[in-house]
Amino acid sequence: MSKIFEGHQATLISKTLWLVPGRVLAGEIELGDVLRPETSDAAEDQVPNCKVMAIETYGEAIDFLSEGITGEVIIQVMHTEYDAFMRQLPAVFLLKAEI
Fold it and tell me: What share of the chain is helix, strand, coil (3-state, %, to 5)?
């Protein structure tokens, strides 16, 4: 089963944290999940792992987002060398995890 989050306009909020509003397309996104941006023009080793550090919907902090629900996730991208990659993501992109 896949976990897929459709992100809209990732915004850098601190050195390694990014705010990504969007909605869950498949599965359930949970705190601690590790997602990867889907991209066709980058080698696998150039795509960062993104750990879900916080989830919020309707102004409330929660532990998971179910399929079809909108919200914001704060993801941690461990190394700042991925900043350029994250800044070049399209306006709408997918964060995926295979389980």
Answer: 10, 55, 35
